[in-house]
Automatic annotation (TrEMBL):
Name under which the protein is recorded: RNA polymerase sigma-70 factor, ECF subfamily
PANTHER family: RNA POLYMERASE ECF-TYPE SIGMA FACTO (PTHR43133), RNA POLYMERASE SIGMA FACTOR HI_1459-RELATED (PTHR43133:SF8)
A Pfam family assignment: Sigma70_r2
Family that this chain belongs to: Belongs to the sigma-70 factor family. ECF subfamily.
GO MF annotations, alphabetized: DNA binding; sigma factor activity
Span of the signal peptide: none
Length: 182
């Protein structure tokens, strides 16, 4: 969803047009869910965290600064909830069975069987490596490559400088390369 559309919807909600919040949810539910899924590795946790993100957004919408991008505000909120969840459950670095990526499974269905198997195996390998990364590196790689977030927006979401965001991505990629060599 375009930022100016999101901001217009926020203004409407703040002026009492509460049904407009459903449009915000519809516009951001998939990216928020996918971020939570890739961070936690659990579809159930991702669904709960996505729902909690939108509940919190609803409760604190009056604190949103219309000068900022709505997307970065919502992602910051979501990422903080995910971090707290991972810290509480002691799963900052996950191991075990990675979840299949929805998009990967859909692509695999449309390919021939050999391509389907190879794509699924590659996707599961990448997901497993992501889950084993330190939390800061995982966040950065997911935001950059799975959510297509700019370094500038990533810096805002993560609460770091742009150069620190770039460094986290670089270190994450280096760590994944080393894992691939194992």
């Amino acid at each position: 969803m375009e930022d100016k559309v999101a901001k217009a919807l926020v203004r409407e909600v703040l002026q009492g047009q509460t049904p407009c919040f459903a449009e915000l949810v519809k516009g951001f539910e998939s990216p928020v869910y996918n971020l939570a899924l890739r961070m936690t590795g659990s579809p159930a946790d991702a669904a709960d965290l996505s729902q909690e993100t939108f509940v919190r957004a609803w409760l604190h919408l009056d604190k949103y600064d219309l000068e900022r991008k709505f997307f970065t505000w919502l992602y910051t909120l979501s990422l903080n909830l995910i971090r707290n969840h991972l810290a509480k459950t002691g799963r900052a670095v996950l191991s075990g069975q990675p979840h299949p990526d929805r998009e990967l499974v859909e692509e695999a269905r449309n390919a021939n069987p050999a391509q389907s198997l190879a794509a699924k195996q590659d996707g599961l390998k990448v997901q497993d490596m992501l889950q084993r990364l330190p939390l800061e590196q995982r966040e950065a790689l997911l935001l950059r490559f799975f959510q297509d977030v700019s370094f500038k927006d990533m810096a805002v979401i993560l609460g770091v400088t742009t150069s620190a965001a770039k460094m986290r991505v670089r270190r994450g990629l280096e760590t994944m390369r080393r894992m691939g060599d194992e």
